[in-house]
Structures are given as structure tokens and as C-alpha cells.
Amino acid sequence: MLDFKEKIANQISSITNIDKNEIYEYIEIPSDSKMGDYAFPCFRLAKTMKKSPQLIANDIKDGIILSDEFEKIEVVGGYINFYVNNKAIVENVLKQVDLEKEKYGSSNIGKGKNIVIDYSSPNIAKPFHIGHLRTTILGNSLYKMYSFLNYNCTGVNHIGDWGTQFAKLIEGYKRWGDEYDIESNPIEELTKIYVRINDLCKEDESVLEQCRNNFKKLEDGDEYCVKVWKKFRDLSLKEFQRIYDLLDIQFDSWNGEAFYVDKMQEVKDILEKNNKLVESEGAKVVDLSDKDMPPCIIEKSNGSTTYATRDLAAILYRARTYDFDKDIYVTSYEQILHFKQIFETAKSLGLDEKYINGLVHVPYGMVMLKTGKMSTRDGNVVKIEDLLKEAISKVKEIIENKNPELEDKDEIAKRVGIGAVIFNDLYNSRIKDEIFDWDIMLNFNGETGPYMQYIYVRTKSVLEKAGYIPEIKDVNFEKLLDEDSIKVIKLLYQFNDKIMQALDKYEPYIVARYLIEVAKAYSSFYNNNKVICDDKEIQDARVYLTYAAGIVLKTGAGLLGIKMPDKM
């Protein structure tokens, strides 16, 4: 694919003797196309070249040899604006679509590189609620984008299946297990037990102490504790799988916290050997005061381990097993300090610097109820399964009213309903807190998943009406030089760049918003131009443009984890 930015960078680099990769990074895409397709800000060079940006811009412009790919260049203030040759970009994009089809926008940049993505990770014996939605959807989207660029990805569901909360649950089950039918409705019933035992712990310190002792017993392999724990885990995973099936999400590894129980001693031994473990109030910790952080607790005063110990064991295991270039953790911003402590402590595990540099925390904002923060302890959660089923049900109702004759209504309602939920979550920057509101979540107007799906369905119906997709050799590119066509083509050209930007910032919203722009541009093109018409050359060109737009919408939606319906 012709890289216009690279062409510009090469020219500016040869004139200024500044590294072309640095120049490439500085090149911008103006928000207003009247200011060109690309702009180079010369302010960046003022200090180095000891001239005003305006003078630098004029000097560079005078030295540029304009190739056929560009129509003109202009200097405005301290910017050099480049206008691409429209026919060149039309021909380039459509030939690339013809060559790559559903792989259009992909690249081999990830060839030979290994990425581990740790996401979703619900706690067993607790409801899979909307607080887990963001990590699940965000992690899945990053996984799909990395895979699309040919990285070797491992998706890890680091299940929360170890820790003191299970000790509480074991204590509650020991006391009142016969009162609850956990076989037929495990999560609901276990949640009731958890809320009840938690209340009792608040009232009675001795009960809390018994719970702590239960966890020590669990770690030591106590037969009763292990048997009950396994029962909770198996029942929970069965429940979780229903939700993953609804979202069409798979994982390569389900190694949760418990998997690392027999691997934690090595972490303690290495830290001990490297003189990093110190005693503090009976606990063993790594002192991080020189990094202005609280100590990283490795072993509690009663001898039991912590999340930190298991996370460090996981880093060791993943480095050895997956040889990762990046190990990405998708969790809420409440855990920012935790991961800073973990990553700092990991430097003392004797790992190659490559692995330490590859540790990445991708934090996201919380999902809140209108009444405030959700808490399993207080029993105020909205379950993902209920949310998804409600979304599907509402879409089915709309379809029944608008298009009662439509076939496969159930499958279409599923794709549109779940697509609406996913798109709503990925449309804004991940770091923003999201106030959960049914009305906003299921609003089917405006810049939404259903709108994007509707425009895709329109491209499908145009192709169906045409009855063919033209051979690329039959497409006259000059028939697509009008404003509407060019706007669509220039957006399609940006597809790979948007994926790269999204991964650079770990922000799928960049792709989500881009797809809305593509959908709007195609909608304008469709409304202003007759696709099926008497002029065969014009029809062939517009049908092929429709085909290309449909490919990008479907592929892009897939990268967000959204399936497209063929009809709506």
C-alpha cells in the first residue's frame, strides 16, 4: 500500500538531514481537509534549525520535488500542507482492497512478536456483573487488533479463584450451606452466603479470624477446604461460560490465581536471595519507599500469600512459557498502584530486561450505577447476562414493530443488541468512568453500534441489488473523483493507521469512532449518488466503492468484537 506519509518524510528528511522516522511521527492529518491531507508542523524543527517555523516551511517547500502522488503543497503559517492526488489514492485503496479482501488494513508488523493479554478475570462465586464488562470487552478488542496485525497473541483469563474471600465463603458454607441450593443457582446462592458472612465478620472479629485461618488451611491443602473450593470454582466457570458464549469470546488460557499456588515459593526464594525481603509487623515485604510507594506485601503475618505474590509468579511463568514482548493487564484504574508495585518488584526477579520493559497496565474507569459504586458485599450489582438479554429483547421488539417479516429475527436481535452494548462501552476513552444507564446503553439513535450495523446492511443490500462485484480491471477510478466518493476513499485509506493508533494508546475507541465516520461518509455518498444507474462505468465504480466500504465496516466491527447482521 502506498504510504503518503513515508513519501513526505523521505523528502523532508533528505532536505533537513533529520531522521525520517522522527519526521514521520510529526506528520499530522488536518481535521479540515481544506488544509490538506497531511500537514508537517515546522515548529518542531525551530530549535534545531535556529530559524522561524515560517522560514523553515518555505525552505523545505522550495526543496521538495513534487511527485505524481501529490497535487500541490502549500505553506500556511509554520505548516507545510500536502494535498494528495485523488486519482492516486482511489486507485491505491481499491486495488489494495481487491488484493487483500477481508485482510485489508492488516500488516505483518507483529510477525514473530508475542503478546500476552490478561483480561476479564472475574472472581469465582460472585456475579459476573457490568463491572467486569469493560475489562472483558476492552481486552477482547485489543486481542483481536493485535492478532489482525499478525502478533502471536495469548489471551489469559486470570480467574480470581484464590484469596481470603473464598475463606469467608467456606466459613459461610460451613455454617449455613444446607440453607442454600447452590447446585441449581450457584452464583445467586453463593452471593447470598458471601453477603451474609461478610456482615457477620463486620459484627464479630473472631469470625473474621476464623475466615483468615480457613485461607491458611486452603493454602496448606486442607481436604475439606479444597473440596468446597473446587465445587465453587467448577460451578462458577460453568456459569461464566454462558456469558462468554453470548459475547463470542474465547481464551487461550484459564490459568487463574490458584494455578500459581505451587509457583509462589520460587518468588519468595528469589527475593530472599536478592536481599529484597524484609520483615514488617510480622509480614514479609519488599520495601519500595525509594520509589515513593508503600511496601509490596509478599507474605502476610499468618504465613498466607497475597495477590502480589501470585502476580509475580505469573510474570515469571509467562516470561518462560510465552517469551512475551508485552504482558498487558487490563484492569480498573483502582489497581494502578498495585501494578506499579508489582512491576517495580519484578525488577528483582532476575528476568531479562525485555520482559520488565514489556509489562503494561491498561487501566480503565469504573462502571457506576446512578446510585454510586457497585459492591458484591452490599448486593447491588447489575449482571452482564441480564444486561445482554435485555438488550437482545429490546432489539427484538423494535424488529417486530418495524420489520415483522424479517427472517432470523433472533440471531439479528442478538447481533444488534450485543453489538449495541459493546459499541457503547468502546466508544469513549477507556479511562473515563461510565455511569451505567439503561436508557443511554440501549439508545439506538445517533453514533451507535446499531447505526454502524445499519449502514453495513445497506452496503449488503446495494451489492445484492447490483447482483455482482465488478472485477477491479473494470473499475474506472476517474468515476470516483467527486467529493462524496473521495471522502469515503480517504477514510478507508486510514484504516490501518487507526488500528495502529488504537494499539499505540491501548484505546479501541479510536477504531470505534473511525467506523462511525466511515458509516456517515458512506451514508452521504449513498444519499447523494445513484449507485445502480444506466451508466455501466459509473455503476461499476460505485458498486466497488460500496463493496470496499462494507469490508472495512465489517472488519472494523469484528476488531471491536461485534458481529454484523446481513439484514436489519
Explained architecture:
The strands form four sheets. The protein has a four-stranded parallel β-sheet with strand order 5-4-9-10, with helices on both faces. It is globular. Helix 18 (449-466) runs antiparallel to helix 22 (536-560) and helix 19 (483-493) runs parallel beside helix 22. The chain has 22 helices and twelve strands. It has helices at residues 4-16, 20-26, 46-49, 53-63, 86-100, 133-148, 164-176, 186-203, 205-219, 223-247, 264-273, 307-322, 336-346, 353-357, 384-402, 409-426, 438-441, 449-466, 483-493, 495-505, 509-528, 536-560; strands at residues 38-41, 70-76, 79-84, 114-118, 152-156, 277-280, 283-286, 296-299, 326-332, 359-364, 367-368, 434-435. With 568 residues, the protein is α/β, with parallel strands linked by helices. It starts with a helix and ends in an 8-residue tail after the last helix. It folds into three domains: 4-84, Arginyl tRNA synthetase N-terminal domain (Gyrase A, domain 2, 2-Layer Sandwich), CATH 3.30.1360; 119-368, Rossmann fold (3-Layer(aba) Sandwich); 384-399 and 406-560, Isoleucyl-tRNA Synthetase, Domain 1, CATH 1.10.730.10.
Break the fold down into its secondary structure elements and pairings.
Blueprint: H1 4-16, H2 20-26, E1 38-41, H3 46-49, H4 53-63, E2 70-76, E3 79-84, H5 86-100, E4 114-118, H6 133-148, E5 152-156, H7 164-176, H8 186-203, H9 205-219, H10 223-247, H11 264-273, E6 277-280, E7 283-286, E8 296-299, H12 307-322, E9 326-332, H13 336-346, H14 353-357, E10 359-364, E11 367-368, H15 384-402, H16 409-426, E12 434-435, H17 438-441, H18 449-466, H19 483-493, H20 495-505, H21 509-528, H22 536-560
